[in-house]
UniProtKB/TrEMBL annotation:
Record key words, sorted: ATP-binding, Nucleotide-binding
Any one GO cellular component localisation term in the record: cytosol
A Gene Ontology molecular function term of the record: ATP binding
InterPro entries tied to this protein: P-loop_NTPase, PhoH, PhoH2-like, PIN-like_dom_sf, PIN_dom
Pfam family, one: PhoH
Superkingdom: Bacteria
Gene3D superfamilies in the cross-refs: 5'-nuclease, P-loop containing nucleotide triphosphate hydrolases
Domain PIN span(s) in chain numbering: 3-135
Protein name, UniProt field: PhoH-like ATPase
Species the sequence originates in: Paenibacillus cellulosilyticus
Family: In the N-terminal section; belongs to the PINc/VapC protein family.
Length: 443
């Protein structure tokens, strides 16, 4: 059954290729959406880039015909810029003010009413990433949905980076005897990925267990190479933290992703591993730490001072962890230490774009606030001999158009899970304090 999809502005600003995601159905872009896209095209950020991409895409389609009459898309669908469905009466009765959102709702509602009057079975669907717009549509009796085509996986199927297998105790004994297990001989019904960790447990219920890792070629299970010794004073407190350190300290894995709730140790483990590799082993020339400048809550506006002073409020979580690792006693000591070392650089993510970064240990914190394109831009900056660590909590999104599934961190975890050059771990147990763990679980 054919459908009519009316697109909100935020869908196109999130994914300029969204018009091709609706198969052979009719795609409607309300005229007010073009006005909103035009107002964003001069921005220097991701929204501005996407606004310009949409503008160029629509401009190229004009060669095929008039947009207000409809253009046949490559997937068999029909794209139309709507100018005539501007009656605002029905929506105004419900919501009053003639906002841009309400105008988009009016277009969708008028289309829906027309189809019903014709006795057609064609459904009209409003597609928006704005929760309140979808709620308003529901109040008006309109069908509305989020834009889901760019999601790589459902929320329940997110890759955790490790699996637990219950096996016969003889299998665990075989591992301890030969120090490896062939995946083929185990005849597993589930798929295991390169660098994925496996916890073997006795199916008979005893305490016998083993912690292993899938080899980079994905053909066998092998032991962890690292012991549980302290790394810059930090010792793994649970199995997932030990897995994370195994990935962070493995020079053959240039891309590591860490996810988990607040207090699970993501930042501290990554910084400890980076300091060991840069300061002690001299494997990398520099430790570069960056995070996106996305404030939680109301922005505090422009800050006075030099670049370092402006960035300090957003970079403070990084400095807090560095102060713990260096065991500083006084305020300001960490700045003196970092100035003296010269090999540790704390930056805002804005200043990484356009750079080529060879021979460095790179940590990107709060990566859940990055879009897919931004993650691609950052990882493609990584030069020869560098290692990059992206980490964050997909449940704590401060970006208006992202969620736990569509953000850049989740995207790269899913895209790279089958690659031998990457590894991922989801940290689950909070180790900051009992109160922090309770807050993460209950609040």
């Amino acid at each position: 059954m054919k459908k009519i999809f009316v697109l909100d502005t935020n869908v196109l600003l999130h994914d300029p290729q969204a018009i091709f995601a609706f198969d052979d159905n009719e795609v409607i872009i309300p005229a007010i959406v073009l006005e909103e896209i035009d107002s964003k095209k001069r921005l220097a950020d991701e929204l501005g880039r996407n606004a310009r991409s949409v503008s160029r895409l629509l401009d190229g389609m004009r060669e095929q015909g008039h947009l207000h009459e409809g253009i046949v898309l490559r997937n068999g669908g029909l794209l139309k810029v709507e100018l005539n469905h501007r009656s605002f009466v029905r929506v105004q009765e419900m919501f009053g003010e003639m906002t841009n959102d309400n105008r988009i709702l009016a277009v969708a509602l008028n289309y829906d009413m027309e189809e019903r009057e014709k006795g057609s079975n064609t459904r009209t669907v409003l597609v928006s990433k704005d929760v309140l717009v979808r709620i308003k549509a529901d109040v008006l009796g309109l069908e509305a949905q989020d834009y889901l085509s760019d999601r790589t996986v459902s929320a329940t199927d997110l890759y955790a980076g490790y699996s637990t297998l219950h096996v016969h105790p003889s299998v665990i004994d075989e591992f301890y005897t030969y120090r490896f297990l062939s995946l083929k001989s185990l005849q597993l019904s589930m798929k295991l990925y390169p660098n994925e960790f496996v916890i073997l447990r006795d199916e008979m219920g005893t305490s016998k267990s083993a912690l292993l890792k899938v080899s980079q070629d994905g053909v066998r299970l092998e032991p962890l190479y690292l012991s549980n010794d302290a790394v810059w004073g930090i010792t793994a407190r649970n199995a997932q933290q030990r897995m994370a350190l195994e990935l962070l300290l493995n020079d053959d894995i240039p891309l590591v992703t860490l996810t988990g709730k607040a207090g699970t140790g993501k930042t501290l483990l990554a910084l400890a591993a980076g300091l060991l590799k840069v300061e002690d082993e001299h494997k990398y020339k520099k430790l570069l730490i960056a995070r996106p400048v996305v404030p939680m809550g109301k922005d505090i506006g422009y800050l006075p001072g030099e670049k370092e002073e402006k960035l300090r409020p957003w970079m403070q979580p990084i400095y807090d962890n560095l102060e713990y690792l260096f065991d500083t006693k006084k305020s300001g000591d960490i700045d003196k230490i970092l100035m003296g070392l010269g090999s540790i650089q704390v930056e805002a993510l804005t200043y990484i774009r356009g750079r080529s970064i060879p021979g460095q240990f790179i940590i990107i914190d709060e990566a859940q606030n990055l879009t897919k394109h931004e993650v691609k831009t950052i990882v493609s900056r990584v030069g020869e001999g560098s290692k990059i660590v992206l980490m964050g909590d997909p449940e704590q999104i401060d970006h208006p158009y992202l969620d736990s599934i569509s953000n850049g961190l989740t995207h790269i975890v899913e895209r790279f899970k089958g690659e031998s050059s990457s590894g991922h771990i989801t940290l689950e147990k909070g180790e900051r304090s009992k109160l922090a763990q309770l807050a993460a679980d209950l609040l």
